[in-house]
Amino acid sequence: MHRRTLDAEFAGFVRDNRVDLVRTARLLTCGDVHRAEDLVQSALVRAYVAWNRIRGSDHPVAYVRRSIVNAHIDESRRPFWRRERSVAEPPEFGAPESPPDDLGDAVRAALGSLPPKMRAVVVLRHWLDLSVEQTAEWLGCTEGTVKSQNAKAVAKLRHLLAPDGAPAPVPVHAGRRSR
């Protein structure tokens, strides 16, 4: 296939999926638009390089999302002195309009209190609606790790988001009797 055709196809892919990819990245970065944009941009660069290979797959969006999650986790492993830091706010002109933000400040802050891998589990399981098996595959860990990380994350979020003074609601699990 000609490069121009591949480029046009990739441009269409980006146009159709960019807003959702940025939303996912914003959840991972707790609303930090600039970090989210950086994650999406680096994932799209990797996808462009591999486009001829991934375009025929069943889920090219999944490839890019996985790349975003992996880049987010890798960034969190980097020592703080090696991370890129912004010294000034970049100009806002020319930047695309941010996608609407469905999450409140409290939820974003609560997500931000989670370690990066735990946050990734929550985003993959509850935002992208992946199964435990798919999440484990994406993160390169066991299903048990996904389940325990998810349970800990949900408990912490429930505690952090409970109204002041109110105990966090405890779910009743199907098949178990509460005492």
UniProtKB/TrEMBL annotation:
This is RNA polymerase sigma-70 factor, sigma-E family. Residues 106-157 form the RNA polymerase sigma factor 70 region 4 type domain. One of its GO terms (biological process) is DNA-templated transcription initiation. Residues 14-78 form the RNA polymerase sigma-70 region domain. It comes from the Bacteria. Belongs to the sigma-70 factor family. ECF subfamily. The keyword Cell inner membrane does not apply. InterPro entries: RNA_pol_sigma-70-like, RNA_pol_sigma-70_dom, RNA_pol_sigma-E_actinobac, RNA_pol_sigma70_r2, RNA_pol_sigma70_r4_t2, RNA_pol_sigma_r2, RNA_pol_sigma_r3/r4-like, WH-like_DNA-bd_sf.
